[in-house]
Amino acid sequence: QRRDSNAATIAVGVRIFAIDDLRLVEVATILFLGGRVRGRVAFVLNLEAEAKEVEFDLSDQANITPEVRQALKSAPGVIDVHDI
Questions:
Q1: How far apart are CA 11 and CA 66, in angstroms?
Q2: Going by fewer Cβ within 10 Å, which terminus of the chain is more open, N or C?
């Protein structure tokens, strides 16, 4: 039963809201350390200079555990992280 509860805490994916000076290297490292499994990763970048938001998906998938989600929320440039 523990396995079922662990599966329930892993998100299908995340949408990462960030400002345009997001440090992608740090976010990529967090996602890499989480491992590649099945989670969709989408970025929503707030481009203040152009007064636009741009959304794009990564071609790779990531393992979105609660620890990965929390690490993403604390990464420089990340405003918020929502489950998809």
A1: 8
A2: N
Extract the runs of DSSP E, i.e. beta strands, from the chain. Answer: 13-19, 40-47, 52-57, 78-83
Cβ atoms of 78 and 16 within 8 Å: the answer is yes
Q: Radius of gyration (Cα) for the chain, nearest Å?
A: 13
Threshold 0.85, pTM exceeds: no
For residue 27, the Cα-to-chain-centroid distance in whole angstroms is 8
Q: Is the dihedral of CA 56, 61, 65, 68 positive or negative?
A: negative
**Residue-wise over 36-63: b if at least 16 C-beta within 10 A, else e?**
eeebbbebebbeeeeeeeeeeebeebbb
